[in-house]
Each structure stands twice: as C-alpha cells, then as structure tokens.
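Fold Annotation — chain and its backbone
Next Lines — sequence and tokenised fold

***
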Amino acid sequence: ITPLVVGIVGFGLKDSFDRSLRREELQLSNVREMRQLLVELQADGATPEGAQATALTISAFGRPAVGPLVTTLATGDEVRRPAAERALRAVGLTVPEAVCLPLVKVVDNRSGRFTWLTHLSSLRLLGDLECQQARPALSRYRQLLAAVTSPDKLSLLESVIDQSVPPDMDSVQQLRSELDRAEK
C-alpha cells in the first residue's frame, strides 16, 4: 500500500507543479505582450481612437492589466486618461474587485499623488462598477469635499490632490457630482 500512496502523492505533486509552471509561463507571455501594448499606449502622437483600441486590448488581459491601466489613468493626458478609464470599466465588468480596490486606494490616498482628474475618473468608475467596498472611502471623501466651501478653502485639498493640475471650485463641484453618483 505504501508504494501506491507514494505514487498517488507523487503524481498529484507533479500535476500541481506542471500547472503552476504553465501558469507562470502564461503570465510571462502576457507580460511580454502587454509590454508592447503599453509602449504603444504611451507613444507620442497617440490618437484618441488608437489609445482607445490599445487600452481595450490591454483590458483583455483582465486582472494583470489593472495596475498599468490605473497608472495610465493617473499619468495620462486628455487622450490616454479616457482610454484607460474605459479599459478599467471593461475589466471591472468581469472582475470588479480587481478594479475597485485600487480605485478605493486612489480616492482614499492623502499623499497628494493623484490629480483631481484622476480622482474624478476613479469616482466615476467606482460608481459605474457599483463598488460596495468603496462606501467608507467615499464617505471620508465626502467629508473632505464638504469642507471646501469657497475658493479660499481650496488649500484644504493641497495635501490630498496633486497640485500640478490645481483644482478650482468648478472641479470641486465636478468631484461632488461624481461622488453623489458613485454613492447611489
């Protein structure tokens, strides 16, 4: 009986190892393919249509695409940011938890690493994807925005929002509108 048990356990371990190895090979292949797409997305002179197509292709990688797409959302311009937002929405339709958690971290971040435009996109996506785990972060964000009642109070956002694109009262109102929509 001992050789039979050892044989079964050995076969199980070999099968598990083979699956793990295939999974790692697939991830490496995905990284190579995604790398080229990310280079295309970040290339100078990207058109809205080209950026959109590339970002949606990246979204097909699912969960592994979320990190690079959130980075593009945070660092992208008026062409790349909307493309990344659409791609994150596409990923979120199949694996919402993979997208919700990083976006909660964006709106909950108090280091000033993200522009108000990144916050706006994050709020919009949290609402679109109905991220229930975002509720506490959205509540904290509401408290923050509630304190900004006039232009002289915009300084309250300096430590929270990257000032490379400084928010004004109009942008605060846009953030409030998206927050209202996200909390419904």
Observations:
- The radius of gyration is 21 Å.
